[in-house]
Design goal:
This protein has 141 residues and is mainly α. The chain has helices at residues 4-33, 40-65, 69-74, 88-95, 98-104, 108-116, 123-128; strands at residues 76-80, 130-134. Helix 1 packs across helix 2 and helix 2 (40-65) packs across helix 4 (88-95).
Length: 141
């Protein structure tokens, strides 16, 4: 049996791959439209598109399916700590801190919290009162 923390890491890697695939068309379109020299405003616009994909892909997946594609692939789902299904607001609250956890600190905050909290919960999980559990598990870990 694969430990939950390893499943969460595998799900992260799969979701990062999905994120990269989603960003390729945006980046190619941006490059095709950039005929002249690129300025900082257009770079900021591209970064904004990437962040919106980074925020809304997992938020919408978690709201609709209670898991991202990575979570689904390794048999995980997200629930509220009371075991109920998450709402759209809960999914958004869970993912909003990702910019701090994963981008600004290169994942160090996420790693630290995963290793030191019950249920391997990250900042977004703590704020949204959620937990990632194995799909076949009915009890919240």
């Amino acid at each position: 049996m694969i430990p939950l923390i390893l499943k969460k890491f595998l799900a992260f890697l799969l979701d990062f791959f999905v994120f990269a695939i989603l960003c390729i068309p945006v980046s190619l379109l941006y490059r095709a439209l950039s005929i002249e020299e690129v300025d900082s405003a257009s770079n900021d616009l591209l970064a904004l598109f990437w962040y919106l994909i980074f925020l809304f892909y997992p938020t919408l997946m978690e709201y609709r399916f209670h898991a991202t594609l990575g979570h689904l692939a390794v048999g995980l789902k997200i629930v509220r700590i009371d075991g109920t299904q998450i709402t759209l607001l809960t999914a958004f609250k869970r993912r909003f801190p990702d910019i701090v956890e994963l981008i600004l600190t290169s994942g160090l905050v996420a790693l630290f919290l995963n290793l030191t909290t019950d249920g391997y919960r990250r900042l977004g999980d703590l704020w949204a009162k959620t937990v990632v559990i194995e799909k076949r598990s009915e009890a919240v870990s």
